[in-house]
């Protein structure tokens, strides 16, 4: 027991001045591991090496001695500030960290708040191959996001529900390589997003959506948008509470229309943290088809293949969460009942109405329909 406390006392005594006269080769020859020797070298170079900021170096040395900062904590400080390019800024950060008391973990936490975060290196476009392992190799491709989006769309087309997506995409990738086929390039498809005033109450009938105005008149949504915006562009209508209402163009295809509107309402999978774009998602029935759910816009949401299969379809199941529409927005509800609204900044509801409560109140006296944005969708040419 006494021996252990002696070791602790020695560790506490290992402060900055023990590195006066440091020699890397002698330390390595003494059997000290490389990582620790390299830490000592960084500390020695900082406090006893040559620098243009000699005054700042003296201040740091005074702080390290006065606070009896151990070599372990000095090593933490040097690693935390190593990415700062400006020497004077690096010294200022070092001064601040030398004042932090407590354990090494406390110092690491404080360093995250004090030291500016390291900027990630920009990706280097290119193709890289790994060495062989168990008969396989790894292929890594870094390319412009639009190129990779086209490749992903091509590989995910026609996924077999009975197989793992990764296996299907590998086979599709090999077919493209062996067959000499090119991945189709995506084209942009602009759709005008139009907010419908909260005083125009939508009613969905077999004939489509009818808007009832506060003066007692009514007009079909198709006629209203045709009069106001014409048919040069696709025009999608959204209500601040009901959400997506309809999409119009010269030729109407119901299934494609619903998919397009859902992609505009939620540009990615609705489950928080899932990155899969809605172009590659399945359209999920919020009230399951087997439970009598309809294929109407207010019962649809985009979900990736995985989350569509693990969703709690039945009301009595509380395992993986479920999807709901709240104020016209796709919302994931946790198994314990906590609602997490989808918050993608490109969502049509967010672009047009912002926060549902604040914007609804702010628009309560408005009577005009205005164009608030154009959402550009992108899909490969077929």
From TrEMBL:
Question: What Pfam families does its record include?
Answer: HNH
Keywords attached to this entry? Endonuclease, Hydrolase, Nuclease
Q: Which residues form the HNH nuclease domain?
A: 256-309
Which CDD domains does the record match to this protein?
A: HNHc (cd00085)
**Coiled-coil regions in this chain?**
none
Q: Does the keyword Nuclease apply?
A: yes
Q: Does the keyword Hydrolase apply?
A: yes
- MF terms (GO), sorted A to Z: endonuclease activity; nucleic acid binding; zinc ion binding
Protein's name according to its UniProt entry:
HNH endonuclease
> Per the UniProt entry, what species is this protein from, by scientific name?
Corynebacterium timonense
